[in-house]
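> call design_seq(struct)
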């Protein structure tokens, strides 16, 4: 049985200050847990309501569905919950496209952007200090295991951009050059901004290009795209160009 102290500890990991205090974060669902188990992340504990085929019995603890409900952050808990250590990510050299996120706040958007990076083979995301914590349970869940494969660092974006002056830095904005008329450099940084305020003026002024996704639909009825949707469209266009130029 799970002790009261263990339940309280796991429940506390919904808050960033306790994740930092205990250096732990939560992953839910056997499929998602498997992604982290077979990565460089360090596993601390797994609690499951059923046997886990890819682990020895000594590597997890069987619990009841009621116990899982007490520690799960999901409305409908999955079959398992695991605790992993929070690793230290270091900034890597930029090769190909990298993403930079300026104060992105929504956990769902963050998780989707991490999945996009994983899908397209983008190995690194640089986040401003005010961007949502990637170990927030909602971000971890939305990333669907992709968090295990993308290097994500938090640092001041002004310092990051000024230390990479030799790179093309693309800012996204409602007013900019047409995405589909933009020629992308093979090594580049795409900066995506806050859901409500976009990219800060200080960061935008340092970017070499400002691009926008043109509207083709009814302007009066169409809401602006959210940051994750915009990222998907721009990243897709970037790789379409790079692959076309590489094969031509």
């Amino acid at each position: 049985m799970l002790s009261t102290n263990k339940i309280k500890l796991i429940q506390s990991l919904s808050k960033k200050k306790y994740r930092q205090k205990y250096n732990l974060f939560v992953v839910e669902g056997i499929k998602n847990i498997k992604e982290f188990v077979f990565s460089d992340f360090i596993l601390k504990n797994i609690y499951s309501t059923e046997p886990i085929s890819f682990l020895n019995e000594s590597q997890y603890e069987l619990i009841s569905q009621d116990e899982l409900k007490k520690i799960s952050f999901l409305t409908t808990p999955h079959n398992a919950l695991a605790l992993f250590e929070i690793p230290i990510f270091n900034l890597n050299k930029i090769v190909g496209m990298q993403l930079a996120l300026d104060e992105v706040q929504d956990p769902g958007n963050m998780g989707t952007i991490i999945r996009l990076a994983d899908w397209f083979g983008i190995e690194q995301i640089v986040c401003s200090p005010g961007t949502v914590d990637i170990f927030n349970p909602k971000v971890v869940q939305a990333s669907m295991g992709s968090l295990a494969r993308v290097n994500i660092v938090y640092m001041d974006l002004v310092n990051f951009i000024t230390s990479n002056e030799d790179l093309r830095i693309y800012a996204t904005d409602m007013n900019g050059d047409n995405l589909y008329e933009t020629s992308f450099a093979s090594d580049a940084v795409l900066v995506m901004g806050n859901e409500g305020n976009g990219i800060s003026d200080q960061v935008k002024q340092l970017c070499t290009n400002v691009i926008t996704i043109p509207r083709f639909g009814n302007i009066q009825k169409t809401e602006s795209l959210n940051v994750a949707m915009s990222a998907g469209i721009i990243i897709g266009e970037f790789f379409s160009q790079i692959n076309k130029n590489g094969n031509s």
